[in-house]
Write a structure and sequence with these properties.
With about 1150 residues, the protein is mainly beta. It is about 5% helix and about 35% strand. The strands form twelve sheets. The chain has a 25-stranded mixed sheet that branches. Strand 10 and strand 11 form a beta hairpin.
Length: about 1150
Amino acid sequence: MKHTKLYSAVAAGLLLTTGYSVHARAQSCVLEIAPGATIVGATNEDFIVIEQGCQIDAEGTAEQPINFTAASAVTGEVEDNARGLWGGLVINGFAPINDCPEGVEGGSAECTKEGEANSGLFGGDNPEDNSGVLKYVVVSYAGSNVDPENQLNGIAFQGVGSGTEVEYVQVHNNLDDGIEFFGGTVSARYVVLTGNADDSLDWTDGWQGNIQYLYIEQSGSGDNLIEADNREGDENAQPRSLPSISNMSGFGLAGENGLRFRRGTGIHLTNSFVVDSGSCLRIGGESLNLLGADLTIAGTSFGCEEAVVDDEGGVVADYLATADEVSTTGGSVNPVTPMGDFFESASFIGAIGGDNWTQGWTVPGSVSNPDGGNPGVGCPEGTTEASEEVAGQSVCELEGTITQDLTLVPGKLYQLNGKVVIGGDNTDSATLNVQAGVTVYGGTSSDFLVISRGSELVVDGTANAPVTFTGIDDLLGNADIETTRGLWGGVVINGNAPINDCPEGAVGGTLACTKEGEANSGLFGGDDPADSSGSLKYMVVKYAGSNVDPENQLNGIAFQGVGSGTEVDFVQVHNNLDDGIEFFGGNVSATHVVLTGNADDSLDWTDGWQGSIQYLLINQADDSADNGIEADNREGDENAQPRSMPDISNMTIVGNPGECGVRFRRGTGVGLYNSYITGNATCIDVSGESLGLLGNELAVDGVAFDCPEVVDGDNPDLQSYLDGQDNVSQDGSAVNPVDVAGIGDLENSGFIGAVEEGSNWTAGWTVGTLDTGVPDFPVVDGCPDGTTDGAPIAGTPTCLLPENIIADLRLTSGNFYILSGKTTVGGDNTDSAVLTVDAGTTIVGNDAEDFLVISRGSQIVANGTASMPVTFTALADVDGATNLDNARGLWGGLVINGNAPINDCPEGATGGTVECTKEGEANSGLFGGADAADSSGKLNYVVVKYAGSNVDPENQLNGIAFQGVGSGTEVNFIQVHNNLDDGIEFFGGTVSARYLALTGNADDSLDWTDGWTGSLQFVHIEQGADSADNGIEADNREGDENAEPRSNPTIANMSIIGNSGERAIRLRRGTGADLYNVMVSGSATCLDVDGDTSVGLIGMDINIESTSFACAEVVDGDNPDLQTYLDGAVNVTQDGSMPPAATLPSDGFFEQSDIVGSDIDSWKGSWVFGL
């Protein structure tokens, strides 16, 4: 194979490319292609074949699709109508086919066939065969005549099984068929076939898969949209071709057939349309005899010059006349439910609903009908078609009380006439489903939507196609994005969750505690905190809040007694005349909320709301706005139960300069975390019974206030509380993110404010001009107290760390912090201190004797983020040195000592007791004890580079040494790069970690000993080719291999890309280990279990499941016990093939994952160095 810089593809460590016919049989037999890669063919003989038993792993993204194309396309010399410039992609599998050698039964292992163009055997008896993944893949300008007898399809699926994943695939301008299925059972979703010169889609030989969301557009010299056979020469051969296709859009050519079903094929076609062809449908041969049985059509509109051709006796026309929801004149039809579990619910006709999934990754300009070109569907049952259009679109009207499920599909506008109520009050319940891209509008101030208790609203928008609720003036172009408000009412959702405003005599939170909503919007409240009122995803409410009557003005969205079973994610309320969102009691939580331009309070709550909001962006209007938040427990009874007590994290308020940011009153509690308030006259007011909750049920942590006056009015109690909070700033300066995981429904984010810099979740679906208010915290000048000024390095101020830190110390970003020898935080369980390290901070070592030790009882809190990690590195790195690719051992490293159990004790002590302690390497202090849950702090987004020096002739340091560290310590997103000794080593303890990248380390990448019993998930190890030992070297204890507690960690989702002269995993000296979802490649040997003690643990304390080994030798040396175990292990492959993922332990630590390997591309981000 010749190489090309255009193609970055990894398979068992190799770089591969085309250049002629490439058959994937190299090493692990997996052709792995990175997102964004381009594979080029230059001649008609260039094509790729994936052989039976091999796989292609081509998993691109919408932003970085994988392209198979012609050389001239890369150089910009390709013409728009070019075709046949190279061959194509062929995938062979072991799934059943029906075209067999003579005497062989279809669907059997012996039923195989040679592919076109000498592309290899295919077929077999494994319908679930897995040939890999094609996701976001584009094949263009292919289909060459490999020889006079053979022309290739863009993609040929030959006997490919249902274990193969095919999603988001385009074939553009192929000289032969776009895609052809030769038998097999593979299915696909999101398929685009454009500009192909023969049939766009073809099948034969017994294909029995499915396709959903199929877009076909022919141009130039195309033939049929679909030409389909069972088998030429034996039309009833078994297994019969019998696919199901739903949601197809077919744009054909005049003079050609749209769909041609022949030679005994069946098909179940639903929710599709065909337009522009000379004829829409042609059915011949044995396929005619299948009409109404194995050949059915429903929910389909045909709009061609002729609906049916070659229909002797009118058999096809008669069938269509009685079929369910079929139009032969291009008219509107209603969707039907397709058969089979494969199909998603999609209540629209054609390939594209409200969300244009073809956007961004297909060949530019190839999809001419991104709106779907749908001939239309009628108004859903339960609505009425209006007599007039609005803004050129037909309108379906909703009116009165709707007591049956109703789905609003794209292609229509939906008008609310007056108060529209879904369901009765816990009777006649119904669900209103609103699909992506739908717009619902109100025409007058009395138009609003109410979801009754027991009913549900399911808004299924997307980032590309949000669901919009708005006013008619907006659709007519008469709304001002800045000032228009109150055009219609709003959305009210009533639930059965607890409230505290009850009829006289009723107890809050009980079934009897109910309340009538504003504007006669129905009863709400009850005793079901987990009640579900549906789900709201990507929903925008604009220009609402009208005065329904003189006493009642509506909120944009009113959540009235709504329960925690309701899902609210990505919701905006813009320019409401009253509050943006108000919670009246209930337990519902929300994430990704945007409130902009609302005339009263942006967010309000009362009546005992106890949910949470995370990622909340508030932009208040300058022309008309009140508080960013106004919050009560209950007016008239400020201590009513259940008390309003929500949790809010990652909020940004960009306020009105004449108003207050947040106002907590009338007995409400709140937990306010990781937030930023700026632009208001005053930032915060707490009054009434809420003042008595300060520090308990009303807490503020990790919040930066940036207003001319922080506290509203004369409020000494509030001022005193804020002054006592060491992680609250009153001058807009930086604060540290608080770990909120475990507080309600909140997750740990690692940043302050609603939007993290570089990751704007508001983009694309919201309206108006947003100020995301990403905090621009001023840099604190000078060195923190406890450090001393040093000479600048590369223009950056430096601060010298002391030898001993015995008081809490915070290292702020903007300086380099210099280690001088051994820096120790705290004494050994005395003079304890916390070293806090802000995001973006760099700590520097310059000498072999420079290292940092966290003593027992003290903590390090490293608050890095994905965009601003905490970095420990060498002076040469920050001082501009180049060519550090092989640099190691330039300074010491990081040592953390804890009080958790170990098994290497002084003589006479028992492992795991207080007396069992040990002195760390390089005189790094005592570790060990009896506190398994001990906390040594937090490491989040931390990178350690170029460490591992020889502190003295006897001692070489690890990048990070976790010595007796307990499970209360949080460790996430860590990289150790180019350490001279081990990357990370665990010396006993119980600490666990996620997201570890260990790269270029000279000794073992991961090591453990002394009784470590923690867990790891998502571990990526790449060993240095110039210097490396084992990927993992693991002991229980040298000298006492059965010491207790025994080293016995659990590791899931790990990749090891090893050194070709070393082992990948070495388990020895009595250690146990459970390994799941592991992928090992590149090492000389994959696995060694060494010593009688560890060998005796195989299958008991050493277990391996769902693991792929791809090494020159899997087992190191002569180890028949290990080999026998692997041969019988569950889903362990020894040829590099990919097994299915395992079900991971349900112990509260592991996230279930369907990935084998580290899945590093999903989490590495810019914070990881060198990958």
